């Protein structure tokens, strides 16, 4: 069970290993607060959509499997969107269109199709939680780097008085540059680990 949880954080991280969910990752990570908000929203949807898909997997005809999964995912995305609008309107405005787009996020649909539809509910929930935490980890790392370098702040608090930040880091080119460096770094770590432990 622990292995199922940790695989989404390390071995099969949806961003740094599988290269999934890059669109919201690049768009909303101008700050850590946005990253955490998107990560929490995606994790909620992952966990509960995995649970429902796993519970009804034997009742859904094969021909309408994907549309049914999308309806389940859309239900939880709607709950998240309504919650954000009611209780966290500033975060909802910052995340904008990327909250409803969780419906077609390939991480969530991929886990429903590849994992939850083939496994029992408990394991599916653990898988969803692990993948959600892994996605949130990636968002937060990218958001922290971009916010510190591009705004001289972390969670809105100024870090170094008088430091002139690199504005490019909170713009789209900064997102691409940062994710490229991070992908290279994690690929290097994986290569070293495989070299040390080829089995």
Low-confidence stretches: none
Strand tally: 2
Query: What proportion of the residues form beta strands (DSSP E)?
Result: under 5%
SS-derived structural category: mainly alpha
Which features would summarize this protein structure in a list?
single chain, 199 residues, mainly alpha, 8 helices
Q: How would you concisely characterize the structure shown here?
A:
The chain has 199 residues and is an all-alpha fold.
Q: Please, could you describe this protein's structure?
A:
The structure is a single chain. The chain has 199 residues and is an all-alpha fold. It has helices at 2-7, 22-28, 32-56, 65-87, 89-95, 106-114, 121-151, 172-196; strands at 153-154, 157-158. It has one domain. It has a two-stranded antiparallel sheet with strand order 1-2. The chain is globular and about 60 Å long.
Layout: helices, strands, pairs:
Layout: H1 2-7, H2 22-28, H3 32-56, H4 65-87, H5 89-95, H6 106-114, H7 121-151, E1 153-154, E2 157-158, H8 172-196
Antiparallel strand pairs: 1-2
Helix pairs in contact: 3-4, 3-6, 3-7, 4-5, 4-6, 7-8
């Amino acid at each position: 069970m622990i292995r199922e949880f940790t695989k989404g954080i390390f071995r099969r991280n949806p961003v740094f290993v599988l290269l999934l969910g890059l669109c919201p990752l690049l768009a909303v990570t101008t700050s850590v607060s946005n990253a955490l908000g998107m990560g929490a929203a995606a994790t909620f949807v992952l966990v509960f959509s995995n649970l429902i898909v796993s519970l009804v997997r034997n009742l859904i005809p094969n021909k309408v499997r994907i549309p049914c999964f999308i309806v389940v995912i859309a239900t939880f995305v709607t709950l998240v969107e309504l919650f954000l609008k009611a209780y966290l309107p500033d975060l909802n405005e910052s995340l904008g269109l990327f909250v409803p787009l969780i419906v077609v996020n390939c991480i969530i649909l991929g886990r429903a199709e590849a994992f939850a539809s083939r496994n029992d509910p408990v394991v599916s929930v653990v898988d969803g939680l692990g993948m959600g935490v892994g996605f949130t980890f990636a968002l937060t790392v990218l958001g922290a780097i971009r916010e510190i370098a591009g705004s001289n702040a972390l969670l809105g608090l100024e870090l170094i008085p008088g430091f002139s930040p690199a504005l490019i880091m909170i713009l789209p080119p900064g997102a691409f540059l940062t994710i490229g460096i991070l992908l290279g770094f994690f690929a290097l770590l994986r290569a070293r680990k495989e070299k040390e432990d080829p089995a």
